[in-house]
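Researcher: Good morning. I'm working through a list of sequences from a screen, and I'd like to move beyond sequence-only analysis. For each chain I'm collecting a predicted structure so we can compare shapes side by side. This is the next one on the list. No need for commentary yet; just the structure.
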Amino acid sequence: MPFQHPETTGHGYVIERYVTRKDSDHPRYLELNGSRVLRPGWPHAERFARHLIDDAATVTDAELEALLAYEWRSRLTAAWLIGVDRREAFREHLGDLLLAGEVCYSGGAYRFALARFGTHADAEILTACLHRYLPRTDLRYDQPAALGALLRLDARLGTDHATRFTRPDGHWDQWVSALVHLRDHPAFTPAEQHRWTDLHRDFANGWSRD
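Model: Good morning. Structure tokens for this chain:
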């Protein structure tokens, strides 16, 4: 998919407005891409959450489209806004971006949004993504987040889509084992990926207005 700067559609302001704004000591996109927001006692939590919720509720679909058409920082931020507000109309668009696999980092945010939507359609998108990319052991980004999101949805929906990937010596084990230092690393077990997805989604549930 071609990259398009928001200025070309008259939305040049959205980068500063949503992506690089500072509600802490770092730009928003960096906080969303990290784990500090999950730490108990983080001093910026209330301000950060309040502004994220407000922006997720008020950002227009056109602004989100402009963000999704640009680079990884804006795509990551847009996907979080979509997920927090559960803008399910963007499911297909996020699925297309996920399967395209164009940039790193933003994929984890797409998976967060799909996990927040929480339907069978979202599980099918995540399954298709893992089916396409787990055999690519040379691609080292975003697959843990995809597996964690799918495990979360399996638990919620009573399905077992992830089983085909997590069986012993299956695609997940092969993907992890492609790098020697990841073998037997506790952070790369399916259970740990499930736990991280739960942390992100449950934390976001605390931000939402439902």
